[in-house]
Amino acid sequence: MTDLSKNDVKAMGKAVGLDIKEPDLSEVTEVINAIIEAVDEINPPGLDAIEPLPVIPPPPRPKSLATGTAAGRQRRGRQASRGRAAPANGRRTRGRASGRAASGARTGARRAKTSRSGR
Amino acid sequence: MPRLKNSDIPFLTATELSQQIKAKKVSPVDAVKAYLDRIDKLDDKLHAYITVCEDEALKAARAAEREIMRGDYRGPMHGIPMACKDQWWTKGVRTTAGSNILKDFVPDEDATVMTKLKRNGGIMIGKTNLTEFAMAYTYHYPFGVPRNPWNLKHMPGGSSAGSGSATAAYMCATALGEDTGGSIRGPASYNGIVGLRPSQGRVSRHNIIGSCWSMDTVGPMSRTVEDCAMTLQAIAGYDPKDPHSWKRPVPDYVRSLEGGIKGLRIGILKEKLYAKNIEKEVEDATLKSAEVLQELGAEVRDVSLPMSVHDRALYSPIVYLEGSMVHHKTVRERLKDYDHNMQITLLVGSIMPSQVYYKGQRLRHMLRAQYMELMKTVDVLIFPTAAAPAPLIVDKPGLGTKEEFKRETINTRRTLTGLSNVVGAPALSVPSGFSKTKLPLGLQILGRPFEEDTVLRVGFAHQEATDWHNRRPPIS
């Protein structure tokens, strides 16, 4: 597989609203080419027939319930709930942090490392 | 309450301390003070803690002492001073995730693991240092570069660097870390302690600041396997606030340590031991551990999992993409507030082609299927936690050229931990020896999903037949 050029990488960034500039552009190009190449090199037989399933396969189900439809419903349900379980991202944490004091003040933790050691 | 000499308290195991507290021979207040003294003495060198919660810990210790004295003992974690990786919400205490971006963030509620710890009487004495947002290889640590107590020039590992260093240097009785690609087991190995990455779904991720939703797992980091089991007991179990946690019975992990390993089938994973990147002294230590387990009655043999050589390669697009999605807004608004290496990581993840990510998921499924098939023939797998002892602390930023990145990160010479994250299985790292340079080495033990009890039992048997866990780092 041919490596992505810096222009390719810049265009990929633009497509998702990111303006990737030098010197980051060179490094991003090196790393993404490394990952793409590493994945491209793995081609075990039967891979194209794989449908990725949840992280942990569901526990065994009674035979009477183990139909394709039921399994599909269960899988879809779990995937939908994953979306709601998205961990705290920058937006949520920043919102909650606004107007708050840092822990040293709020908690009275006199050993808060940033204030004690100037780090 | 009768008093043990305070300076001796930190050198008890968490299990011993728990017994002393239950018997009212040690006060939780004295225990907390003893660990705070250790932190005062050592942490300016180790930078294991970002925030030390002296006032809160002493307040909680006094409350625990009152409860215990009046007979309201809550269980083994009651009054135990512990450290928590600064990666999850702690009500009223700053939560930075090791980043300047969250340096002033004070959550108004706890993560579920904190709620459970408090309910069980555990006392958080501080929040520990980590790579930024538990990702990448951080170059600039805003709260100080964490260091290895066995040799200050070396890394304590990542991302749960501070929890590993603090536990090894007796600056807490036990600790919690989080493991996405080896972030509990790597630091456990590098610091000569025990670390368990539980099965995916065993411990709640509610209010964890995630780095990769499909692989993040909170788990214990302790000086002994018993301590690890005791700590896991306090946090394991289904949480309705985390739909990805699983409704599975939680065994009695401490009791499961008993019984020995006679007849247990143990596979030495060939692809992770007899490989060119594994240092000879690591291979020798692993084979010695295998002999120890065999002498204890286990049936030990070589096994193969061919797809496992690709675990890091297929893991990379998944972690980079999912990690970048956690930060999809801040990467656009505050990119330069991240560490340099994190910036590159987030930019790469943000533009990861969907077909590469999807192929990674397909490969993951295939590897998991192979793993589950193999685990029908053995009860646990063993191989080294890391290919070499702790590396030197990095002295320049950057993830390198394409070839360097493939060599150092994808076909890593560092940790061998990706397999359990990819397949969602429990994995334990226990001390297995020392290098010629006097740095700790670790043995990894993997089991079937939700069989942490088996993994812990093997680790305990190994521990009881060796003495690596009793060695103390020179800084202590």
Structure explained in plain terms:
- The complex is a heterodimer of chains A (119) and B (476).
- In chain A, 52% of the residues lie in helices and 0% in strands.
- Chain A has 119 residues and is mostly helical.
- By secondary structure, chain B is an alpha/beta fold.
- Chain B has an 11-stranded mixed beta sheet, with helices on both faces.
- The chains are: A mainly alpha (119), B alpha/beta (476).
- The interface between A and B is large, with 66 and 99 residues.
Number of strands of chain B: 11
Mean residue pLDDT of chain A: 64
Distance between the termini of chain A: 46 Å
- Could you say which overall geometry of chain B the principal axes of the C-alpha atoms support? globular
List the helices and strands and how they pair.
The complex is a heterodimer of chains A (119) and B (476).
Chain A: H1 6-15, H2 24-40, H3 68-84, H4 90-97, H5 103-107, H6 113-117
Chain B: H1 14-22, H2 28-46, E1 49-52, H3 54-69, E2 81-85, H4 112-119, E3 123-128, H5 161-168, E4 174-178, H6 185-191, E5 194-197, E6 218-222, H7 225-235, E7 265-269, H8 280-295, E8 299-303, H9 311-326, H10 330-333, H11 340-350, H12 354-374, E9 380-384, H13 402-410, H14 418-423, E10 427-434, E11 440-446, H15 452-464
Parallel strand pairs in B: 2-3, 2-4, 7-8, 7-9
Antiparallel strand pairs in B: 1-3, 4-6, 5-6, 5-10, 9-11, 10-11
Helix pairs in contact in B: 2-3, 5-6, 7-15, 9-11, 9-12
Produce a short descriptive summary:
The complex is a heterodimer of chains A (119) and B (476). By secondary structure, chain A is mostly helical. Chain A has helices spanning 6-15, 24-40, 68-84, 90-97, 103-107, 113-117.
Give keywords:
heterodimer; A: 119 residues; mainly alpha; elongated; disordered C terminus; B: 476 residues; alpha/beta; Amidase signature (AS) enzymes; 15 helices; 11 strands; 12% strand
